[in-house]
Design goal:
The chain has 513 residues and is of the alpha+beta class. The protein has a domain of 32 residues. It is built from 13 helices and 15 strands. The strands form four sheets. Strands 7-6-11-3-12-13 form a six-stranded antiparallel sheet. A five-stranded mixed sheet has the order 4-5-10-9-8.
């Protein structure tokens, strides 16, 4: 084969170009510190780089955003529940004190006032928020747990369905009669002394004063709407589900009706149901109690619109309908879990619902103690007032003194029953507060467990971040020493090729003629 000068020149120039291209590649690597600048240079490196960058980006997302956000949410929840635990502990201490000590009137007032303050502070902890999101209200993170403004109270009109089981039945001690102190204070000494036995009995029936245990279901709220004011139904209803899964109306099926009352001392007859609309209690006669108890689970539907600031919103606890806005809220049994993705295919629940750790029974139990203390205070004040009347010169006649002695004896009997009820309430409060505290402690422990899992995940991700960063660098970044050596070699080859090419290019056929 004949090799011409043109062919040699062309080959030399091609070789120079190849060597120059190699120098350009190495120069680019030195400038960018990367092995490739476009995918076509090495598709395997490019594909591997995309995968590693995606994985590293996700790890950084978890470490820099998701995990800190989840940790802050859990930390806020834990802090609020710790405060709740402290409040319940204070109430527990008052119960222990009240169940063991003989309290004076002033001490009872201090306890009552203290319990009221603790009651107000209890659910205020449920309004804590993180980054503008309320942490105890499930999916409704834009809605506070309690009513905080008058504007929120404007549309507070609800039809509430509250679920119960047979375990929710308890007893209420009812003092069956009392001394009418106002009637006594409206009488002069002469009028009091002139009272007949029948008239005196109307003021204070000594023989009727006693205590009776009544079966009770306590609703979540006080001040229930009377039937005359209800809009969605004609009265409070009780439903249950039979063995066949059919929902039935307990009242209609058994021919019962609910009688409304505001008298805290009224006792239901054997086949009667009383609804105290002020205290939010359903009181059952023995016959009705037995039948309803045997149904197992049941629900009570009622209406309430007299909410106040600090009251908990029903939609966070129950299935209910806002009658003002016609919005229905469903309370699912499985809860409303807010989960953060904290690792590859790993989610972590960050929220705790108020219905699980801030039960409305806490407030109702505290109210029960407050009412028992207040009733004992009122009864003791009756005895003190009547004793002062006995020392009043205007009531110094023998007849008036005799009547006052009978009234004081009746008032003292009433006080004894209220004191006994107070003692029982405090003793019951000890166990109830222990149960509530245990429930809060379990919620705090659960948060602690989740924080521990989160920290373990964080440690694991930090290790993964280091590994992915090393792999990414190994895949994409150059070894500077190697590239510098290769560049020097390429430069030497390039210069040599230029020298060789210059000798070939300057020779032509004329040089040999």
């Amino acid at each position: 084969m004949r090799i011409t000068n043109y062919m040699m020149q062309k080959n030399s120039l091609n070789n120079v170009g190849i060597n120059k291209k190699q120098m350009s590649i190495l120069d680019t690597q030195l400038s960018t510190q990367k092995k490739i600048s476009r995918p076509s240079e090495d598709p395997i490196i490019a594909i591997r780089a995309l995968r590693l960058r995606t994985s590293l980006g996700e790890v950084k997302q978890y470490l820099e955003k998701n995990i800190p956000d989840a940790n802050s949410w859990l930390d806020v929840s834990e802090g609020a529940l710790t405060e709740v635990d402290s409040i319940v502990s204070d109430v527990y201490n008052y119960c222990v004190q009240g169940s063991t000590d003989t309290l004076s009137l002033s001490e009872r007032k201090i306890i009552s006032d203290s319990l009221k303050e603790l009651r107000e502070a209890l659910y205020a902890q449920g309004d804590v928020d993180y980054a503008g999101r309320y942490v105890f209200t499930g999916y409704r993170t834009d809605s506070s747990l309690t009513y905080k403004t008058d504007e929120q109270l404007q549309d507070a009109d609800y039809c509430i369905t509250q679920k119960f089981t047979s375990k929710n039945f308890d007893y209420k001690s009812v003092v069956t009669s009392s001394v009418d102190l106002k009637a006594v204070q409206n009488l002069t000494g002469a009028q009091l002394g002139a009272l007949t036995e029948a008239e005196l009995k109307n003021i204070a029936d000594y023989n009727a004063i006693g205590s009776e245990e009544v079966h009770r279901i306590r609703l979540a709220y006080t001040d229930i709407k009377p039937a005359a004011e209800m809009t969605s139904a004609s009265s409070v209803s009780i439903q249950y589900t039979d063995a066949g899964g059919v929902q039935k109306d307990f009242l209609a099926e058994n021919g019962y009706s609910i009688t409304e009352t505001t008298d805290p001392n009224q006792v239901p007859a054997d086949g009667e149901i009383l609804l105290n609309t002020e205290t939010g209690e359903l009181l059952f006669g023995n016959e009705v109690y037995t039948k309803l108890f045997n149904t197992g689970d049941f629900s009570v539907t009622y209406e309430k619109d007299s909410f106040e600031k600090g009251d908990c919103k029903p939609e966070h606890y129950f299935t209910c309908t806002n009658l003002a806005t016609n919005l229905t809220y469903e309370k699912a049994d499985e809860g409303q879990n807010i989960e953060y993705i904290v690792n590859f295919n790993q989610k972590l629940k960050v929220n705790s619902e108020a219905s699980d750790c801030l039960s409305l029974d806490m407030g109702r139990d505290i109210d029960e103690i407050i009412n028992a203390v207040d009733n004992a205070i009122v009864a003791e004040e009756k005895v003190n007032t009547l004793t002062k009347l006995k020392e009043n010169p205007n009531y110094s006649s023998d007849e008036a003194q005799e009547k006052l002695d009978k009234l004081i004896e009746a008032a003292q009997k009433e006080l004894d029953y209220y004191n006994d009820n107070l003692q029982k309430t405090f003793e019951s409060g000890v166990s109830l507060m222990q149960n509530h505290q245990e429930k809060v402690d379990i919620a705090i422990a659960d948060i602690g467990n989740r924080m521990t899992r989160l920290n373990l995940t964080k440690t694991r991700l930090e290790s993964q971040k280091t590994n992915f960063t090393d792999l990414k660098s190994s895949n994409e970044d150059i070894e500077l020493e190697d590239v510098v050596i290769n560049y020097a070699s390429a430069e030497l080859v390039y210069n040599a090729s230029l020298t060789a090419a210059s000798k070939v290019v300057r020779q032509s056929l004329l040089d040999f003629i």
